[in-house]
Amino acid sequence: MCGIVGVLGKHEVAPMLVEALKRLEYRGYDSAGIATVNGGKLDRRRAVGKLVNLQDLLVHQPLAGKAGIGHTRWATHGAPTERNAHPHRAGKVSVVHNGIIENFRELRAELAECGLAPETETDTETVAMLVSHYLESGLPPVEAASKALGRLEGAFALAFLFDGEEDLIVAARKGSPLAIGHGSGEMFVGSDAIALAPMTDRITYLEEGDWAVVTRAGAEIFDESGAPVQREEKRVRLDQTQVDKAGYKHFMAKEIAQQPTVLAEALGAYLKGDEIVLPSPGLDFTEVDRLVLVACGTAYYACLTAKYWFEKLARIPVEVDIASEFRYREPPVTKGTVALFVSQSGETADTLAALRYCAGRADRIASVVNVETSTIARESDLALPIHAGVEVGVASTKAFTCQLNVLLLLAIKAAEARGRMAAAEKSELLAQLRALPGLFNAALDRDGAIAEAARKISEARDVLFLGRGMMYPLALEGALKLKEISYIHAEAYASGELKHGPIALIDKSVPVIVMAPRDGLFDKTVSNMQEVMARGGKVCLISDARGIEEAGDGIWQSIPLPDVDERLAPLLYALPAQLLAYHAAIAKGTDVDQPRNLAKSVTVE
Ligand code: M6R
C-alpha cells in the first residue's frame, strides 16, 4: 500500500507531484506529503487525511523546486499523523516508501548506539536515518543509499532525494512495484504507470531487487548485487490509464455502469467465433490433474465461483485458498498441478508470495489479472488479462465480473479439451455469454428498485446474505461489498448452513438478502427463506420474475432480474449486489470510493 512518486522536471514539480499522487490515492489516503530540493535545500509539506488537505496547505505554503518526491500513505507503523507522514527526513536526505521494513527495530537500536534517535513511530524514518548516517560518515549520496539498501529487510519501493542534489533521485524496488518514466529532459519514478501517465507513456519497470540512479539524462539500473542491468523501456497504453469519473458521482458508479461494455470487449478479446483463444503460450488442459486457485478478497470469491465451473463443466479437481493462508501452510503442490492466481492489481503481496511458493513446484503458473504489466502477470508462465480497464473504486466491481468471465472461458476451454463439452453445447453456452452484456443492461435498469431496497437495508446494523451453489460465493461477495463501503456488518452463509447456527441471529431487525435464480437448487433455497420468514426475518429476494412469483407471499423486498442461464447467473447477480452496497453507502453518507481503513492495492501482508 502507499503510493510514491518522484520527478526531476524542467519546471516547478509540486503540481506534477500532486497530480501523480491524485492518481495514486487508491493505494492509501491516510496522509500525503511532498518534498522538493530548491536552491540546494530540502523542504517538505505534509498533511493528514486525503490529498485535498495537502493541496490546501500548498496554497498557503507553496513549495518551490524542480526536483521532488511525494507520497500518499496507508498507515502501517504509527498513527496517521502529520509527524508520521512521508516524506521522512534525516539530515540531508528525504525518503518516501511503500512497504514495510521488517528489521527497522534492529536498525534503530544500532543507530541509537551512535546517538541517533527517531522522531516518528514509522519504520521508514529509520531508512532515512541510516542513509543520513552513511552520508555523515563521508559517503556520497548514491553510495550511502546503496549501502543502506543492502541493510534493509522486508518489502519496499523507495525514492530518495538529497540536500544539494537537484538532479538526482535514487529509487529502489524489492517486494513493492516501482516504475521509471522517461521524458524529454525530465525523468520520473512512480508506484505505477498510471501515476506517471500525464507526464509520460515511456515506462521501465524495475525488477525485484533493482535500484536506480535517476538523473534528467536517464536512469542507470543495478540489480541487487550492484551489477548494472538493462531493463526494457515500454510504451504504456494510455487507455489503460484514464482515471476520470466520466460524469458519474463516484468511480464505483462509473465502474458498475461500465460492465456491459467491458464484458463485451473482454469477450471480444478471447473469442474468435466459437474458439476461445488464450494468449501465448496457452494451456493444455488434457495434462492438468488438479487446479489450485489462490487470491484475496473479491478475487478469492471469483475463484470460489470458478471451482463450481471447473468441477461441473470440466471435472477437474479444484482447490481454492486465501493467499495469506496458503503461503504459510506449505501445502503440497504436486506435478500435474496448475496454480492459478487471480488479482485485479497484480500486486497483492500475499497473492504474489503464494505465486512464488508455487513457482518451481506446480507444472504451470497462470494468472488472471487486470493490470497486465503487474508483477503477478510478469512472474506467471501464462497471464490472462481480464480487460476491465482501470478500476479506481476501492470496492472491486467490474474487475470481479471480468475475472468471472475469464475463469468461465477457461473452464469451458478445459471442458472442451477434456471431452466433457460437445461443440453444440459449447456454442450454445458461448451464445448465452455473448448475450450477457444485454442482460447486464437490463439489470442496471433495476437501479431504482435496488436503491429503494438499499435505503431500507441501510437502516440495519446487521445483514445476512444467503446463497446456494454458485450463489454462495456471490453471497460472500455481496456481504463484503456492503461492509467495506457502508460499514454495515454483513455476513454470508451457504443457505443450507443456516440452520446449523446462524439462524439464531434472525429477528425482524436483520434483513436477509437471498440471491436465488430459479436454478436446480431454487426450491431448496425457498425452503430456507421460509425458515427465515417463519422467525420474523425480513427477506430481500433477488431472483427472476418467476422465481419471485414462486417464492410466494411474505417477501419484504424483491429485486427482479432477467432470466439467465444458471451457469452464468453469478456474473449477472453480481450487479445488484454491487448496486445494493453502493446505494446503502450513499444512504449512509460514507465515502464510497475511498472507504475508511482500506486501500485499493494491498502491497503489504
Ligand atoms: O488486487 P487484488 O484483486 O489482488 O485485490 C484483492 C483484494 O484486496 C480486493 O479484492 C479487495 O477485497 C476489494 N476491496 C474488494 O472490493
TrEMBL record:
Species assigned in the record: Alloyangia mangrovi
Lineage: Bacteria, Pseudomonadati, Pseudomonadota, Alphaproteobacteria, Rhodobacterales
Subcellular location: Cytoplasm
Keyword Cell membrane: no
Originating gene: glmS
SIS domain segment(s): 281-420, 453-595
Keywords, comma-separated and alphabetical: Aminotransferase, Cytoplasm, Glutamine amidotransferase, Repeat, Transferase
Domain Glutamine amidotransferase type-2: 2-217
Protein name listed in UniProt: Glutamine--fructose-6-phosphate aminotransferase [isomerizing]
Primary location: cytoplasm
Enzyme class label: transferase
Self-association and partners: Homodimer.
Reported function: Catalyzes the first step in hexosamine metabolism, converting fructose-6P into glucosamine-6P using glutamine as a nitrogen source.
CDD domains xrefs: GFAT (cd00714), SIS_GlmS_GlmD_1 (cd05008), SIS_GlmS_GlmD_2 (cd05009)
An annotated Gene Ontology molecular function: carbohydrate derivative binding
Gene Ontology CC, one term: cytosol
Reactions catalysed: D-fructose 6-phosphate + L-glutamine = D-glucosamine 6-phosphate + L-glutamate
PROSITE patterns xrefs: GATASE_TYPE_2, SIS
Family matches, as InterPro entries: GATase_2_dom, GFAT, GFAT_N, GlmS/AgaS_SIS, GlmS/FrlB_SIS, Ntn_hydrolases_N, SIS_dom, SIS_dom_sf
Protein EC: 2.6.1.16
Active site: C2 (nucleophile), K600 (for fru-6p isomerization activity)
GO biological process: amino sugar biosynthetic process; carbohydrate metabolic process; fructose 6-phosphate metabolic process; protein N-linked glycosylation; UDP-N-acetylglucosamine metabolic process
